[in-house]
Structures are given as structure tokens and as C-alpha cells.
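Protein in question reproduced for absentees:

***
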Amino acid sequence: MIIDPSNLDSRSVYKLLIGSVVPRPIAWTSTISPEGIRNLAPFSFFTVASREPPILCISVGPRDGEDMSKDTLENIEQTEEFVVNIVSLALSNTMHESSKNHPPEADEFEKAGLTPVPCEVVKAPRVKEAGVSMECVVDRVLPLGTDHLVLGRMVRFHVRDELYENGRIDVASLDPLGRLAGDYTKVETIFGLPMESS
């Protein structure tokens, strides 16, 4: 089957994209408003954009059913900073709670029952319960179609001691959550290549 995305409505294209680009890591993004209100939201359009300097990127779409930007994007544009926290399986329900549309004045750390911890460089807090958190300062924000691509230079790693081994992250112990089309997945099988034939 060959599909021309220009012949489909945007929702149909979106469904094909999220079912094809899998699994996607989740950037559990914490920000703070200029007024000091803490915000926390997950984004599965997320990856590494550059290794030197280390730059992460997240794609922030509009609010569901609304023609307005999300609190995360507004905070990032106003403060020029954010924190990416990695979601472990044990935090999946908490992450889901933070995906709900709370009013802008709500402290989403409190709503999700999480502990905000001060960062070293940025004013936005990180999630204490997360095994890995990365402080970022904005490099640029690019409007792309309906979304905004946020590029952030990573300026600090926060890694729980038991997850750090010889300069690497113990991925199995981190137990990261991944996003599929409408569902989620966890890392269950880790192997190297080439595989031995049986």
C-alpha cells in the first residue's frame, strides 16, 4: 500500500506517524512560569538533536481541540529553560496524571504527587522520583506547521547513583517507558548485534 499524506486529513496522518515511529521515549518536561508556577507534562515527540554540544529536542503541539499553545511552550518561551525527566515504569501512572489539562494556575507537581527538587543551572525544578533528569537552556524554538520544535542545550545531568555505571546509564535498571501509537511499552529484551544464528 502506498499512501500520499496530502490526501489524508491531519488526524489520519498523525495516527500513521505515531504507529510507525515506535517506540518513542518520553520527555517528561518540567518548567516554571515567570510567576513561579510549576508545570509538568510528557511529550513523546522527543530525541537527541546534537551530541556536541549536547542538545535535546521536543515537539510541542497545540492543546487538544484548542487553537492555543500549551503551558509548557509558553513557559519555555518566557523563561528559556526546561528540564527533561525520564519516565520509568514505576512512574507511569504519575506521568499519565501529569498529561491531563490542568488550569495554568495549578501546580502540576502537587497534582501528580511528585517532589520538585531545585536544579543547579535552571530555575525550573526536576522530578526527584525520576532516575535521570537533564537541565536544558533554550537554543531555539522553531515553529513547524501546527507544532513548535524546542531545542535545548543540556547543561546538567542528574543520575541516581545506582543507575550510573562506568560512565553509562544502566538502562535495564532505569526501566524507561516508551510510547507506541495509543499505548506504552517497556524495555524487556536488550541484546547486541550481530545476533548468533540458532
